[in-house]
Amino acid sequence: MSNIAVEPEFEQAYQELALTLENSSLFKKFPKYRTALKVVSIPERVIQFRVVWEDDTGKLQVNHGYRVQFNSALGPYKGGLRLHPTVNLSILKFLGFEQIFKNALTGLMMGGGKGGSDFDPKGKTDSEIRRFCFSFMRELSRHIGADTDVPAGDIGVGSREIGYLFGAYRRDRNKFEGVLTGKGLTWGGSLIRPEATGYGLVYYVEHMIAYANAGSFEGKRVAISGSGNVAQYAALKCIELGATVVSLSDSRGALIAVGDKGVTVEDIEAIMELKVNRQALADFPAQENLKYIDGVRPWEHVGNVDIALPSATQNEVSKEEALALVAGGTKFIAEGSNMGCTLEAIEVFENERREKGADAIWYAPGKAANCGGVAVSGLEMSQNSQRLAWASETVDDKLKAIMKTAFTLGLDTAKEYVEAAEGELPSLVAGSNIAGFVKVAQAMFDHGDWW
């Protein structure tokens, strides 16, 4: 990796995968896969372009636009579009790299990609966002298609932005096709798509709890970060299953539960409305059951919790916060965000897993635990291909099955390739990395991409 520009987020994602492969028996049993790692770590194509648009005062504005088409061995490139001022090539390469193996774990035929812009939708009018989306799609439409590359939403890209982007594509290319996912229900979208990542995260953790003979969500305290779609629907599903949610957060601070009541359904509904209006949690009205702490993440403020679900953004759990979760008795941590834990935090969790056996904290990486969102995007692609719309129960049942497959695949692969002591919980991060990598690498080998 030394011959590329400094790209810290991408290098972190690469190192997480490479280290787990090196520390397993995969390369000893199959040395040829070392070559595949070199090939798969370089995107098939990186598209960069300028996005010129006009604000409401008539002033010209310009932003950077990107699409990283990382790997298409398993199907069309699939991955979200992110609109946020922090967007750069390193972040999109890390997200696209993770997406390759996440998509592989779903069992659906999707490659990996990611894209977006450093445009900030916060504070912009609907007209400004529409003009930006039209300009962005005019260039992007040259490079995507239902059988080539199917973007979705991500941070800063919700149903409004998907609508504008789809409308621009339809007009520019004269095609009505499933070129985007997360579409409106009346024009090709899928039921359960907004809920899918959060619901899928909880379904995945249910399998962790069951395997560890730790009961169910009933009665457990759950710390969640973030307050977007993933966090909202994960929290609602946890409450539905009888858990107490003790935190939510955003980039400015955290809401922490006071007493035993926790976050309520009514609280979450109010936060949903707040976020639709692009307001911060600092604007959430004072509640007896919640206190707002400015400038913090929840992990060192929630006290003892059974489950932690980082669901905001990358690197939101540091080594120090990981140690606080361990000290607080946390037994399960699963990423609703992409690369939510730093490498140092993962090392804390994995060392605990190796040293404390069945009593240890058990960590699940985002490429497995949060694959429910892209899984339902894949199901949306299937519905579009058939010109059908499935019932919510049908989609939810398929989502549950996919999350079970992702868990089981990571679990069984860890048992096969990672040595473990008696009573030690299998490494889900190693198993998920190896399983996703081998599936993609073998497809690339079959296509003659490496030999």
From TrEMBL:
Any one GO molecular function term: glutamate dehydrogenase (NADP+) activity
Domain of life: Eukaryota
Keyword check for Acetylation: yes
SUPFAM superfamilies in UniProt: Aminoacid dehydrogenase-like, N-terminal domain, NAD(P)-binding Rossmann-fold domains
Annotated active site: 114
A biological process from GO: glutamate biosynthetic process
Record keywords: Acetylation, NAD, NADP, Nucleotide-binding, Oxidoreductase
Binding of NAD(+), residues: 197, 229
Catalytic activity line of the entry: L-glutamate + NADP(+) + H2O = 2-oxoglutarate + NH4(+) + NADPH + H(+)
Binding site for substrate: 78, 99, 102, 153, 377
Record-annotated site: Important for catalysis: 154
UniProt domain Glutamate/phenylalanine/leucine/valine/L-tryptophan dehydrogenase C-terminal: residue ranges: 190-448
Assembly and binders: Homohexamer.
PANTHER family named in the record: NADP-SPECIFIC GLUTAMATE DEHYDROGENASE 1-RELATED
Family according to the record: Belongs to the Glu/Leu/Phe/Val dehydrogenases family.
Protein name as it appears in the record: Glutamate dehydrogenase
